[in-house]
Amino acid sequence: MSSAKRVLGASLIGTAVEFYDFYIYATAASLIIGPLFVPSTSSSAQLLLAYASFGVAFVARPVGAVVFGHYGDRIGRKTTLVASLLIMGGSTMAIGLLPSYATLGWVAPLILCLLRFGQGFGLGGEWGGAALLAVENAPPGWRARYGMFPQLGAPVGFIAANGLFLLLGLFLNPDQFREWGWRLPFLASALLVAVGLWVRLKLTETPEFKESLAKAPPPTVPIAEAFRSHWGAILGGTFGVVACFAIFYIATAFALGYGTTTLGYTRNQFLQMQLGAILFMAVGILLSGWLADRYTPARVLTGGCVGTIATGLLLPVMLGSGSGFLVFAFLALALLMMGFVYGPLGAWLPDLFPARVRYTGVSIAFNVGGMIGGGLTPFVAQSLAIESGLGGVGLYLAGAGAASLVALVMLKAGKPGTLKE
């Protein structure tokens, strides 16, 4: 395998595992986690509490970002990427082995939340390291196209997760799925982790990290230097990623729960629609990466944020119609916009920070933004749908797009740096 192929493969496989692990939990939370781990006579309450457990990992992600960012900026990208993959994959497999509430009582949801914390902790160092691995090895003029490879792991992981749940629905009856079938996607994470480790253990350090070490010793406390000298970039980067998390989890986790309850679709029907719609996300990522090298990542992200606002305003009309065509059209539109607010991030965020604190800055911004934009999004969206209908959910999504748009306007477009501090 050539050096370039190994680098791009290593950056892609990690985020594929990330999205696979996170989305199998999001899917399970929409379908089965509530009845198995949350004692309640209300299916709506079970769904809300299952979505709340989903949010635990987003709280853990900034913690992981600080820890992995610290070591990524001090000892290098390779070691931290291997460690994040092991922690993330191990936590996912353990969820697949966890007994339910009927067996362990209150201990079961407690352990579930701890494992979700482990997932989030490992993920806190994953995307930032994968993005740096790609862009810090990119040839001139290819930074955004290399930087989009971690994002392409998202549709790969989504298709693997969704496809596996779809196959389980085809071959298992509801009782089999409830009793043991839902565990198989969690256990299968071991295969993806093994492939990821095989690729990553063959890597060398990136040229930009080596050059940074040659110029000066690494910072003793990278997070202190990052906040002292680049707080504006951290703040702008954090809100710049809010839209991509909000639109993804509304179009996937929330839409799946809403579609299989309120709209009356079967699990397999809705998973098939989402499986088709995710291809639009892949198209958006590929197109946005090419455009970001031709123009700038900030300009492409700005267009994606405007599209996200429009998608939010269309949400109640399209998703609420009940029409199979319009529901699919909404999913396709939302995930296409996700491609445009996600694809350029691999080039945009790293360019906000110098190499010596880049792992820390990128990881904190991405994961705190993920906590704001994605951590409670399924829970909030479900609550809004119950209280005020889909109009409130649409405004919530539009607001997330507007928050990222404001951050992009405030940052210096296309330049490493900060907000005007």
Give an overview in words.
By secondary structure, the chain is mainly α. The chain has a single domain, classed as Up-down Bundle (Growth Hormone, Chain: A). The protein has helices at 3-31, 33-37, 43-74, 77-97, 101-104, 107-123, 126-135, 143-147, 149-171, 174-179, 184-187, 189-200, 207-215, 222-240, 242-261, 267-294, 297-319, 324-342, 345-348, 358-375, 377-388, 390-410. 58% of the residues are buried. Mean pLDDT is 87; it is low at 413-421. The chain crosses the membrane at residues 50-69, 81-102, 152-172, 184-201, 231-258, 270-292, 298-318, 325-345, 357-381, 393-411. This is MFS transporter. It comes from Sphingomonas paeninsulae. It holds the Pfam family MFS_1.
- The secondary-structure element order is HHHHHHHHHHHHHHHHHHHHHH
Secondary structure: helix percent: over 70%
Uncertain ranges: 413-421
- Under CATH, the homologous superfamily reads MFS general substrate transporter like domains
Based on Cα principal axes, name the global outline: globular
Strand % is: under 5%
Assign the structural class, choosing from mainly alpha, mainly beta, alpha/beta, alpha+beta, or little secondary structure.
mainly alpha
What is the number of strand segments?
A: 0
Membrane topology: Multi-pass membrane protein
Protein name: MFS transporter
GO molecular function: transmembrane transporter activity
Keywords: Cell membrane, Membrane, Transmembrane, Transmembrane helix, Transport
